[in-house]
Amino acid sequence: MMADRRTRGDRMAFLSALSLGLWAPAAVAVEVEPHRATYVIELTDQEPGAGILALEGEQIVLWERVCDGWVIEQELDVDILYAQGTTLHFRVDYDVWESMDGQDLRFNARVTVNQMATEEYSGIATLSGNGPGTAHYRLPGPRQLPLPAGTLFPTGFSREMLRRAKEGEFQYDSLLFDGSEGSGVEEARITIGAPIPAGESTEELLAQSVSWPIEMSSYAYEADGGRGPLLDEVRSRLHANGVTEWWEAEMDGFAIRADLRKLVALDLPAC
């Protein structure tokens, strides 16, 4: 049975699952395998009355090393057929460039439902070492959001996750800004399971890689130090070479799972 939780609704839950479920340790220099991964998405559960007859989709994720940082591109397409005959097509396009030192970020995110844009975010963000920073939004309109001290962009967030997994840590909290929506920083609680030995995957590029089961809970950030409402929970299996083998997320009234179907290693740039 699905847990009762506060969610952002279907559209933002798809975007959140896309960003949170795939912040594997893929931005760690030396450890990472730049790659292009394709996932197949299926319905795994639904609450009574959800009325979903069918759900299918695909996600394509690109982690590419460039001379001055990392480029991360993600595309997600999901079709949902409801019992009353309604069909919804969700598409999420998300891309970021992040500097090698993790201090600068350019972000773009767009969500469409039946080819109509419902959310769109674009801008830049900067951090000052371990101190605070600022996000400058261009879309949906000009504005600035403060980023509290301790905020991490995807690279730093991923590096910290991998370090703690390798050290055998069980649970920790972190602040993440990735530009995937307009609410700014989120607080993530990451729970790391026991390592899964190499050889447990049938995918050739993952066969020699240790991996960890991860559960990531995302909460609204509260500046007073308290914990805001639970927004999302995403479970995944993350490999030490930076590849997510699968992820699961609960939407508003139903749950989905994405499984890796194709994995291609990418070359490093000739810098």
Structural class: mainly beta
Average pLDDT figure: 85
Number of domains: 1
Helix content: under 10%
Structural Rg: 18 Å
Order of helices and strands: HEEEEEEEEEHEEEEEE
The tally of helices reads: 2
Low-confidence spans = 3-12, 23-30
How many β strands by DSSP?
15
Strand order of the largest sheet: 8-7-6-5-4-3-2-1-15-14-13-12-11-10-9
Instruction: Estimate what percentage of residues fall within beta strands.
Output: over 45%
Main sheet record: 15 strands, mixed
How far is the first residue's CA from the last residue's CA?
Answer: 51 Å
What does this structure look like?
The chain is mainly beta and 271 residues long. It has one domain (10-263). Helices cover 9% and strands 54% of the residues. It is built from two helices and 15 strands. It has helices spanning 10-21, 154-166; strands at residues 35-46, 52-66, 69-82, 87-99, 104-113, 116-127, 133-139, 143-147, 151-152, 171-176, 186-192, 211-221, 227-239, 244-250, 254-265. The chain has a 15-stranded mixed β-sheet with strand order 8-7-6-5-4-3-2-1-15-14-13-12-11-10-9. The chain is globular, with a radius of gyration of 18 Å. The termini are far apart. Mean pLDDT is 85; it is low at 3-12 and 23-30.
